[in-house]
Design a protein that fits this description.
With about 210 residues, the protein is an all-alpha fold. The chain folds into two domains: about 120 residues, no CATH class; about 60 residues. Helices cover about 70% and strands about 0% of the residues. The radius of gyration is 23 Å and the shape is elongated.
Length: about 210
């Protein structure tokens, strides 16, 4: 999986500012929720808050095809559940803070928008994949090692809702071609459940017969 550090278009100051923004938003949200927990009825905290957390987490989990297989997806679901639970006392804490409540909302809107934009940009793959028609015409001319590299390139694209469909079509072509060239290697790879076919597919020579 790619990380921010591996994305050449993302500068260190931008990443640092995004991390600081996440820290600011998290601190303000939790601090306001703690204030609200003091004034929120205990029955609401025991029933409504957990229910909202479970509803939010369930919605995100059902919409994420990688849950619960991927650790990143599990982490996001847990964070959403915690945010849902804290949303109830947070809502009660804003009026309890008086004028400061408006400041908290303003900071969260401004900083949160920046953090959301950074996260959306980071989620977009930076390495393009081949057009499925173009790839279909080139399959016979690509080496097995190149096919494996093309497969790995599609990993980030599958995590992007905008690119998931084309990436799945490309992977279907690559899988068929890899299976034609090295059926035993593909079978071993699929049985192992490894995201990378590299350790299983024979790339020392092309099985193009």
């Amino acid at each position: 999986m790619s990380t921010d550090a591996s994305r050449p278009g993302r500068s260190t100051p931008w990443r640092t500012a995004a991390r600081a923004g996440r820290a600011v938003c998290g601190t303000l949200f939790v601090a306001t929720a703690l204030v609200g927990a003091v004034v929120t009825p205990w029955m609401v905290m025991l029933v409504a808050a957990p229910a909202l957390g479970l509803l939010a987490a369930g919605t995100v989990a059902s919409a994420d095809p990688d849950f619960p297989r991927e650790a990143g997806s599990r982490r996001i679901v847990v964070l959403v559940a915690a945010a849902g639970v804290l949303a109830v006392p947070f809502g009660a804490g804003l009026p309890a803070l008086g004028g400061l409540g408006g400041v908290v909302v303003l900071v969260l809107l401004v900083v949160g928008s920046f953090v959301a934009a950074e996260a959306a940009t980071a989620a977009e793959p930076t390495t393009p994949i081949r057009d499925v028609t173009e790839l279909g015409a080139l399959l016979g001319t690509l080496s097995t090692d190149e096919l494996v590299r093309e497969w790995l390139v599609t990993e980030d694209h599958l995590r992007s809702a905008r690119h998931r469909g084309p990436a799945a079509e490309v992977r279907a072509l690559l899988l068929d071609e890899l299976a034609r060239r090295d059926p035993a290697g593909v079978s071993a790879w699929l049985a192992a459940g490894d995201p990378s076919p590299g350790p299983y597919i024979r790339t020392d020579r092309d099985l193009t017969g």
